[in-house]
């Protein structure tokens, strides 16, 4: 079973998948983000990470060249958004993968390290 956007799973769904894998011998592979644009864990991701027996990271690079481990939300003008609902998929909303340094320094634009 392949699950994409697994960060949106509920804790109950993550536990059900774990149980399914071990009681029915169904291979389960999940892809998703660990944390949101505020640096807070997605509940589903937190459960998956705690239950996972194998974790493989797909590496992404920040525009500054460092390993990207965080995400920021930007509006249509490229300005960073720091408040709001955990999930917001609107016409002007975009997300960018950034390193921890750029996350804490508040860089928002793709071309600004």
What would you say this structure looks like, in words?
It is a single chain. The protein is of the alpha+beta class. 25% of the residues lie in helices and 18% in strands. The chain has 3 helices and 7 strands; from the N terminus they run βαβαβββββα. The protein has helices at residues 11-23, 43-51, 100-105; strands spanning 2-3, 29-30, 60-61, 67-68, 70-74, 80-81, 94-98. The strands form 3 sheets. A 3-stranded antiparallel β-sheet has the order 6-5-7. A two-stranded parallel ribbon has the order 1-2. β3 (60-61) and β4 form a beta hairpin. The longest helix is centred in the N-terminal third of the chain and has 13 residues, at 11-23. The radius of gyration is 16 Å and the shape is elongated.
Strand order of the biggest β-sheet: 6-5-7
Which structural class should the secondary elements be placed in? Answer: alpha+beta
Rg measurement, Å: 16 Å
Number of helices: 3
Largest sheet: 3 strands, antiparallel
Beta percentage is: 15-25%
Low-confidence stretches: none
The 3D shape can be described as: elongated
Element-level helix/strand string: EHEHEEEEEH
What would the average pLDDT be, to the nearest integer? 90
Q: Percent range for helical residues?
A: 10-25%
Distance, first to last CA: 38 Å
Give the total of beta strands. Answer: 7
Chain-wise SSE layout:
Blueprint: E1 2-3, H1 11-23, E2 29-30, H2 43-51, E3 60-61, E4 67-68, E5 70-74, E6 80-81, E7 94-98, H3 100-105
Parallel strand pairs: 1-2
Antiparallel strand pairs: 3-4, 5-6, 5-7
Helix pairs in contact: 1-2
Sum this structure up briefly.
With 113 residues, the chain is α+β, with helices and mostly antiparallel strands. The chain has three helices and seven strands; from the N terminus they run E-H-E-H-E-E-E-E-E-H. A hairpin with a 5-residue loop joins strand 3 and strand 4 (67-68).
């Amino acid at each position: 079973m392949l699950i994409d956007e697994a960060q949106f799973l509920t804790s109950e769904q993550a536990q059900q998948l774990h149980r399914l894998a071990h009681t029915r011998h169904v291979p389960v592979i999940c892809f998703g983000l660990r944390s949101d644009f505020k640096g807070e864990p997605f509940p589903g991701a937190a459960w998956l990470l705690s239950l996972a027996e194998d974790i493989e990271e797909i590496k992404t690079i920040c525009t500054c060249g460092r390993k990207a481990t965080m995400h920021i939300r930007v509006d249509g003008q490229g300005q960073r958004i720091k408040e709001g609902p955990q999930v917001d998929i609107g016409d002007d909303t975009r997300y960018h993968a950034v390193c921890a340094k750029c996350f804490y320094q508040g860089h928002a634009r793709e071309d600004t390290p």
